[in-house]
Write a structure and sequence with these properties.
The complex is a heterodimer of chains A (286) and B (172). Chain A is built from three helices and twelve strands, in the order H-H-E-E-E-E-E-E-E-H-E-E-E-E-E. Chain A is an alpha+beta fold and 286 residues long. Chain A has a domain at 118-280: Rod shape-determining protein MreC, domain 1 (Thrombin, subunit H, Beta Barrel). Chain B is mainly α. Chain B has a single domain (2-171), classed as Arp2/3 complex 21 kDa subunit ARPC3 (Orthogonal Bundle), CATH 1.10.1760. Classes of the chains: A alpha+beta (286), B mainly alpha (172). At the A-B interface, helix 1, helix 2, strand 1 and helix 3 of A face helix 1, helix 2, helix 4, helix 5 and helix 6 of B.
């Protein structure tokens, strides 16, 4: 530090200016629903590769720790599963027959294309939200790989979330367990519609998310029922598995029900995801 | 210049670790807040102005990657850096009590800020729950990491100050 009589701006003015700047950008991103724009792109290009590398180190350590812990559980589980395999093989045979029948009937009804096979792109999770409040993560595919905002993200067979922002080689995904996420969904058995909201409290308590405004006038929906994305959702493609209902109570208005849903995806150990390269047509043209 | 580059490198490393390695090492899905440690530490080691700028850049980095609202984390971190700067006169390098105390308070205030602005205003009033399950665990974990990270930052800072002093002498 060379001592020179240099003109310096008092710190509190800098604080004031930056505060106004921050509030300004907050206001802009709130009202215009704007991401970081070019800032995002630059940051993503710089940090993406580094995150990818470090993340593999983290995953490796987690894997090793999990391995030790899980070995016993796995052995016990294996026994159990072997029994289950036998039971299921029997069941499968009946189902196969049913399936055959169903296909025949579908062909007749031309319902074949109800749940088309979507084209997907596989991606790795390379970074997770630095805070503990929200549940956003970064994947290593971006607009160069054909990913766009609002595309659905799945892992295994279950819904993970939705792309909220894209850079050239990375994309941000908001998972369905995020506290501000909300998915319009449907119970498979009865086709009743409801809303599934992410809930931080429920998630930390027992790994569930919230189910709301289920309109089940026939009182047929049971805990254990399967929940998929609804065809009336504006951003999610229909028929993607969300999870299973684990608890159901009648609301105080006596009309709707609410409860808890156990997501089909293990969000804590999520490493690879599939992005569906197709967006829901919702009649809104940009 | 040397200082700027070193600080930038520290911020980048902490950000990367926080978003990758420490996420994988999280207990009950709680990860420590390294950037907060960096911001607070430079705040009370170097004063208000530096704390403010470092906080601003740390926050901006988080905003760009994980923030829903651009500028939100930047604002929070900036104030944390600024207010930690007030304790520069009370700060002695070898005493870890004050840094731990300041970083702890900063972490609680930071999380309360996130809670109030982004949960409370959406009608979520479960503060007691979040206090026990998010804020306190993060505090404990962050303080544990602080014990290591603080000394690293302290050593880097002392080294930088030494180099700066020496080159200042040379040019007088």
């Amino acid at each position: 530090m060379r001592r020179k009589s240099k003109f310096t701006i008092p710190t509190r003015y800098i604080l004031m200016v930056l505060t106004i700047l921050c509030i300004g950008t907050m206001y802009v991103s709130f009202t215009m629903n704007l991401g970081g724009g070019p800032l995002n792109t630059i940051a993503g290009t710089v940090f993406g590769p580094m995150q990818r590398g470090l993340n593999s180190v983290g995953t490796w350590i987690m894997d090793k720790a999990d391995n030790l812990k899980n070995l016993k559980d796995v052995m016990a589980e294996n026994e159990q599963l072997k029994q289950q395999v036998d039971e299921l093989t029997l069941e499968l045979n009946t189902v196969k027959l049913n399936q055959y029948e169903l296909e025949n009937l579908r062909e007749l009804l031309e319902l074949d294309k109800r749940y088309p096979e979507y084209e997907k792109a596989a991606a790795h999770v390379i970074g997770k939200d630095t805070g503990n409040w929200f549940s956003i993560f970064i994947i290593d595919k971006g607009s160069q790989d054909g990913i766009e905002k609002d595309m659905n993200v799945i892992a295994g067979s279950g819904l993970v979330g939705i792309v909220i922002d894209v850079g050239p080689h990375y994309a941000k995904v908001r998972s369905i367990i995020d506290d501000i996420s909300s998915v319009s969904s449907m119970v498979t058995s009865t086709s009743d519609n409801c809303v599934v909201n992410g809930d931080l409290q429920m998630m930390t308590e027992n790994q569930t998310i919230e189910l709301k405004s289920l309109n089940d006038s026939d009182d047929k929906v049971q805990p254990g029922d399967q929940l998929v994305t609804s065809s009336v959702s504006s951003k999610f493609l229909p028929g993607i598995l969300i999870g299973y209902i684990s608890e159901l109570t009648i609301d105080s208005n006596n009309l709707t029900k609410s409860g808890r849903v156990t997501p089909a995806v293990d969000f804590e150990h999520i490493q690879e995801v599939l992005v569906i390269l197709e967006k829901k047509e919702n009649g809104v043209t940009e | 210049m040397r200082r700027k580059i070193s600080v930038a490198v520290i911020i980048i490393i902490c950000f990367l670790l926080q978003s990758t390695l420490f996420r994988a090492l999280s207990f009950a899905n709680i990860a420590p807040n390294l950037l907060l440690v960096v911001t607070a530490a430079f705040g009370f080691m170097r004063g208000k102005k530096e704390g403010l700028f470092i906080g601003f850049f740390c926050g901006m980095l988080m905003d760009i990657f994980f923030g829903g609202i651009l500028g939100f984390y930047a604002l929070e971190y900036m104030y944390i850096g600024y207010f930690n700067g007030f304790f520069r006169k009370q700060f002695f390098p070898d005493d870890i009590k004050l840094p731990l105390f300041l970083i702890g308070i900063s972490d609680i205030l930071y999380n309360l800020g996130v809670y109030v602005l982004r949960f409370f205003f959406r009608g979520n009033f479960q503060i007691g729950y979040f206090m026990i399950h998010i804020i306190i665990p993060e505090l404990v974990y962050t303080l544990l990491v602080t014990i290591v990270l603080y000394f690293i930052i302290l050593k880097i800072n002392q080294r930088l100050e030494y180099i700066e002093k020496r080159s200042a002498k040379k040019f007088v």
